[in-house]
Amino acid sequence: MSRGKKLTLTAIGTVIALVVGVTVWILVANDFKFHEERVTIPGPRGELHAVLARPADTGGPYGLVVFVHGDGPANANRDDTYKPLWDAFAKAGFASLSWDKPGVDGAPGDWESQSMHDRAAEVDAAIAWAHTRSDIDTTRIGAWGVGQAGWVLPEVAHARPDLRFMILVGPAVNWLRQGEFALRTELRADGATPERIADQMARRTKRIALLRAGADYAAYLKSGVDDEPMSEARWGFESRNFRADSTADLATVSIPTLLVLGGRDRDVDVAETERVYRATMPPGTLTVKDVPDGTHSMTRNDIEYHPDGLQAFGRSIFAPRSIYVPGYLDALRVFAKRQTE
Known about the structure:
- By secondary structure, this protein is α/β, with parallel strands linked by helices.
- About 45% of the residues lie in helices and about 20% in strands.
- An 8-stranded mixed beta sheet has the order 1-2-4-3-5-6-7-8, sandwiched between helices.
- Helix 2 (about 85-90) packs parallel to helix 13 and helix 5 (about 175-190) runs antiparallel to helix 6.
């Protein structure tokens, strides 16, 4: 065999070995310990298109963690970013249940037409559905939620005695105060001048005045308060929810609650959240986990604020669990397991 052919065969062999090695690595990294089942849940305003992720290593019945999304459109697995969380709960003996927001991936309805009470009604319907499943242990039902779920789950916890625990990640307390904090933080991160910040705060004050006055979308557009107006659907969403405040519901929560707060959260004033939760919730119910490097959703800082970057893509494919800050997934698993021991 000629030297050239030998080199060619060696190169081909090397490429094949690399491809096989990378493929095996990806398969191992994405070997989650759960099985997914597509289910349909009767909801308060139509069907909920959901995924039930059941632990792979046991036959049930399993405990259940109901997932509640934050703001924005979201499919059931939040573009696969929930899978490491489902895996953590599966290791604690819990199935996970999550659904496409209305209007997402073909689900009926429109999530921007919802109030926080509407979202709580969805969770209530999901828990009621869980009671029809023989593979779910309804004495072990908890809930996990991020961001906007902080205005949803305390209402559910107050209404449903069969909810055993809840985990809240980066929840705000008051809708308007959260919005101001997020806007200021975003402007500073963008390097806005003091003059621009003052202008944006003045526009915000006018926008809130319109909301308080019950202005319709036409009146909002006519005001010219925003150079780039929000959509009519978003204006409706803000109009329905801008008065949201979780304080009253928090005072009625009597179940174990894990509050996870990130020191790099740009969306929520986590210091205010911790202060209000500690002052409001009944003694003995609250566990606080402060994560100095945690972002709003507990993903790594370089991923949370650069979700389309090469590093985010690489981690999501080759090491999906590593998109989250160290210790977060273990904290979820340990807390859930402790609630049923």
